[in-house]
Every structure is written in C-alpha cells, then in structure tokens.
C-alpha cells in the first residue's frame, strides 16, 4: 500500500499553467505505475495521464495531449502533472493514483488513490 497526497491545485484563467504534485509514502514507490485522473461535476472520473514505473513510458488522454505532461521523480517519491494552456473544460478534481502493474491507463487497475485537488479554470 502507498499513501498519496496531491497538491498544487487552484483557480486560474484560461491559458494559464499549473503543476500538480503527488507525494507518496513508503519505500516502494518505484514499483508502481502511476496515473492522474479527473472528475468534473456531474461527470464520471476520467483518465488523464499515466507513467510507467521507471518513467520511460507515458500515455495521455486525447483531450490533454500536447498540453499536459506527466513525470515522476522516484528519488522523491513524487509524480507530477504539468498542465499548460488550461481550458475551462479542464476544471475538475484531479486525483493521483498508484497501480499494481508497471503501467496502465485503466482506472480499475489502480489500487491506491489520493484525496484529490481542485483545479478551476475560468474563461
């Protein structure tokens, strides 16, 4: 098990940037594939980005491709989501999650979730 705590959310204007961080507890962080998901009001939780254990493989939802970048620092037990050119439709609660496998984009394969951080983008 790994405990996850997200930070970095906030309220910004369209076109601005934010960097989300997710700090993980435990000494086995590097054994987890990691991902970011988001949930907007009245909508289901959706996949945003995933990164493999080593960071060598990444995947993005089409809606964020080219604007968001996921990265990780295994020495700091932290995964990041750099979000650029933010749009109002990016408004959501963003969740960090840890997967039992080395890499996955499927929410069902994530076993540990953070509490989420709110991102609000106004036009």
Structure description:
- The chain has strands at 4-7, 10-13, 18-24, 33-39, 46-51, 58-60, 68-73, 78-83, 92-99, 110-113, 117-122.
- The chain is globular.
- Helices cover 0% and strands 50% of the residues.
- The chain starts with a strand and ends with a strand.
- It is an all-beta fold and 123 residues long.
- A hairpin with a 6-residue loop joins β4 (33-39) and β5.
- The chain contains no helices and 11 strands.
- Strands 2, 4, 5, 6, 9, 10 and 11 form a 7-stranded mixed sheet that branches. Strands 1-3-8-7 form a 4-stranded antiparallel sheet, with no helix packed on it.
Rg measurement, Å: 13 Å
| Distinct helical segment count | 0
Counted beta strands:
11
Q: Name the beta content range.
A: over 45%
> Residue-averaged pLDDT, rounded?
96
Look at the helices and sheets and give the structural class.
mainly beta
Helix content estimate: under 10%
How do the SSEs run, as a string of H and E?
EEEEEEEEEEE
Low-confidence stretches: none
What separation lies between the terminal Cα atoms? 39 Å
Shape: globular
Largest sheet: 7 strands, mixed
């Amino acid at each position: 098990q790994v405990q996850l705590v997200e930070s970095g959310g906030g309220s910004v204007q369209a076109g601005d940037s934010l960097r989300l961080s997710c700090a993980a507890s435990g000494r086995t962080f590097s054994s987890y594939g990691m991902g970011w998901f988001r949930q907007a009001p009245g909508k289901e939780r959706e996949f945003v980005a995933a990164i493999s254990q080593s960071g060598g493989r990444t995947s993005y939802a089409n809606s964020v491709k080219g604007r968001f970048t996921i990265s990780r620092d295994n020495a700091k037990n932290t995964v990041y989501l750099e979000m650029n050119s933010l749009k109002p439709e990016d408004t959501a609660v963003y969740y960090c999650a840890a997967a039992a496998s080395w890499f996955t984009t499927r929410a069902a394969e994530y076993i540990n979730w953070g509490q989420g951080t709110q991102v609000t983008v106004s036009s």
